[in-house]
Hints:
The complex is a heterodimer.
Chain A: E1 18-19, H1 22-31, H2 47-59, E2 70-79, E3 88-101, E4 104-114, E5 120-130
Antiparallel strand pairs in A: 1-3, 2-5, 3-4, 4-5
Chain B: E1 9-17, H1 19-29, H2 39-44, H3 54-69, E2 75-82, E3 95-107, E4 110-119, E5 122-123, E6 125-132
Antiparallel strand pairs in B: 1-3, 2-6, 3-4, 4-5, 4-6
Amino acid sequence: MPLDASLAGRTFPATAPYDVSREKLVEFAAATGTSYDGGPAPATFPIVVAFRAMTALMQDPSVGIELHRVVHGEQRFLYTRPVVAGDVLTATLTVDSLRHLGGADILATRSEIVDAEGRAVCTALATLVHRGEGS
Amino acid sequence: MRSVAAGDELPEQTFTVTRADLVRYAGASGDFNPIHWSDRVAAAVGLPGVIAHGMYTMALAARAVDTWAGGPGQVLELGCKFTRPVVVPDDGTGVEVLVRGTVKGVTEDGVSLALEVTCGGQKVLGMPRAVLRG
Lengths: 135, 134
């Protein structure tokens, strides 16, 4: 079943506030082979927050995505500023577009990540490919 | 990156990826999809083996960019397509991912880099690119 066309343009509720701790940044940096020096987080760290917004989308029963059919097709980050320890971040996801191609649904999602004051930190653009049955 | 010019090639960087790295990345990122740690599940969905998280491979590209830039926090934009999976065997040795970069342009808006990320001689990311502060 293709996803409903009304999904395009839909904005989902903001994720619960995510407290960026120094220890989390140490852990994430170590997991990607670097060390955290107390300054800016590694560039791909915002995926941790964006992933929560994407997971909420994929688990929303009104959307109808089957998790095991989803492939991450493309990812872009546009940074207003680096993430730092002490940030409290939320992500608000919008489905910018929905296309059907070769039996799959191609969702272009945009997660706007903001700090506790609502100021922009990073925009995470993810293309999710929802494969059709039998593909 | 102030001293670079369009056309400059940046020093190639090689990273070894083992199964343990994927488990560690799963924990750090919160992405516990079993195709990144379970041979059984990977085979059941038709993959040639356990594959690295696309975001892990992208993180290695970002790591290379940070090294070229002299430290984190210089990236204004980072993007790629996930075109080919990086299969990571459970053999204690792992696989090597190579990251190359070429300076495409230097303007007041930043330094634009075209990356090439390969494993086993094949590109694993599509059109990876980054823009750094100038």
